[in-house]
Design brief:
By secondary structure, the protein is of the alpha/beta class. The protein has helices spanning 5-13, 21-31, 46-66, 70-76, 291-304, 324-333, 342-350, 367-372, 376-385, 408-417, and strands spanning 36-39, 88-93, 97-99, 105-108, 115-119, 121-123, 128-137, 140-146, 160-164, 168-171, 174-177, 187-193, 198-203, 206-213, 224-230, 232-237, 252-253, 262-264, 284-287, 315-318, 337-340, 361-364, 397-402, 422-425. It folds into 2 domains: 5-67 and 276-424, P-loop containing nucleotide triphosphate hydrolases (Rossmann fold); 82-267, Jelly Rolls.
């Protein structure tokens, strides 16, 4: 099933000779990167079915970071700073900005702050250039152009020019009305004229006219396509595919900029903004409906990882009834996998002590129990805060375990939150249809 020998050894020592049915089905699916919905009886081995592949992927990620690879990341992005294609740079971005492997989809799920990024190349010297940015998920966006000297929060200094979703242009912390507001599914055209030294934007093909004159002292600066997001997502087209709204007036796609006017980003792989993960941001979060189940899952994880070392996976149990200061201290020293109950988890997340921006696995165990206990809104809130694409370009995986997959609430949640999940149902639907109602009537029998 692709499980590491060290995990196999731990499993053998637990007297597990063969995988159970649910493990044989689920482990390859999770290792392959898919979302999984599973239903199986208690004692079927479902905890191992999701814990084993998660532990393996977390370990492999930590090992790559320790060896300085982001090589699965670096080799994949090896051209990010010297690529034939224009893309957003994974090395020049804020700590909660996630960029997909192609460098064209950007997402920041921090609802409290702005996070930005710039392209892996810039134009300089002259010419007229254009790219498009489409809003793919609601949130706050600001898109435009910046120089090397600009901060990643576009438009708050005098070296970057932004146009925000509220219908405001921004430069030097000055926000003025321009054009009109935009939102999900709108496409913003970004124009840079280095011959006339002007910047303008369009919305869905409607040209809003000149927004800024570029100051003369910026004439020889490098200009990057740039974006800053707050709990939002945008997709970019630098000209490698046809534009939705082709520019007029001699503007060229950035991808067609003359080589003599194109320079590479000064920020290279070794300078990755978020090369070192935050200590309080785990890669996996497992939510259990009760303290007892959380403890059981936590204990299983400790047994599974017994033979994994260098690096060591750091796990934390977050439940009520334990001094919260002890849990915060562990978070500050570093944690990779968190197992917890909803109340204490949300306390730590809402106060910023537990961060979600590096989460790759979101697991709901006994999901029907969580929903029946009224935690549906909390699950929605957490899922909304977790980036759907991690900082190294991996898609968030969601795993849901339930006593039955035929619960209406579980089905609706899966449709809403999960990405084409694989259903593994080893329990089956209840034999009695939901349309059949059971009625008990008591009779008092008298004997003559």
């Amino acid at each position: 099933m692709g499980v590491m020998p060290e995990l196999g050894q731990a499993v053998e020592e637990m007297d597990w000779s063969l995988p159970t049915d649910v493990q044989a089905e689920a482990i390859p699916m999770i290792l392959g990167g898919g979302d999984v919905l599973m239903a199986a009886e208690t004692g079927s081995g479902k905890t191992g079915a999701f814990c084993l592949p998660i532990i393996q992927i977390v370990y492999e990620t930590l090992r790559d970071q320790q060896e300085g690879k982001g090589s699965k990341l670096s080799s994949h992005h090896s051209g990010s700073t010297h690529s034939a294609h224009w893309k957003m740079s994974p090395y020049d971005r804020g700590d909660a900005m996630a960029i997909d492997p192609e460098g064209l989809l950007c997402q920041a799920r921090d609802a409290q702050g702005w996070h930005g990024t710039r392209t892996n190349k810039a134009v300089v010297g002259g010419g007229k250039y254009y790219y498009e940015a489409t809003v793919t998920d609601e949130g706050l966006c600001r898109v435009g152009w910046s120089t090397d000297k600009a901060t990643l929060e576009l438009g708050i200094d005098k070296f970057g020019f932004g146009f925000g979703g509220t219908g405001k242009k921004s430069w030097g912390k000055q926000f003025d009305s321009y054009g009109e507001a935009y939102g999900i599914n709108d496409t913003i055209g970004c124009y840079l004229d280095l011959d006339k030294m002007e910047i303008k934007w369009s919305k869905n093909g409607v040209d809003f006219g000149k927004a800024y004159d570029i100051q003369a002292h910026l004439k020889n600066e490098r200009f990057y396509a740039a974006v800053t997001l707050k709990n939002a997502e945008m997709k970019f087209n630098f000209g490698n595919t046809p534009f939705k709204y082709p520019p007029q007036g001699g503007f060229k796609a950035l991808s067609n900029a003359p080589s003599e006017n194109v320079v590479q980003s000064r920020i290279v792989a070794s300078g990755a903004v978020n090369a070192k993960p935050a200590s309080n941001a785990p890669q996996a979060i497992i939510i259990e409906p009760s303290r007892e189940l959380a403890e059981q899952t936590f204990n299983q994880i400790q047994k599974f990882k017994l033979h994994l070392s260098n690096p060591t996976i750091r796990e934390l149990l977050i439940i009520g009834g334990v001094n919260i200061r002890d849990q915060v201290e562990v978070l500050e020293t570093g944690v990779d996998v968190v197992v917890g109950t909803p109340g204490r988890l949300e306390d730590l997340i809402s106060t910023g002590r537990l961060a979600l921006h590096q989460c790759r696995f979101f697991v709901l165990d006994e999901a029907d129990g969580l929903l029946s206990a009224g935690y549906g809104d909390m699950i929605n809130r957490l899922h909304q805060q977790i980036p759907k694409v991690t900082n190294d370009g991996k898609r968030l995986q969601m795993i849901v375990c339930s006593a039955t997959l035929h619960s209406f609430d579980v089905k609706k949640m899966a449709e809403r939150l999960m990405y084409f999940p694989t259903w593994i149902d080893l329990k089956g639907q209840d034999a009695v249809p939901e349309t059949v109602h059971h009625v008990v009537r008591l009779f008092k029998i008298r004997f003559l």
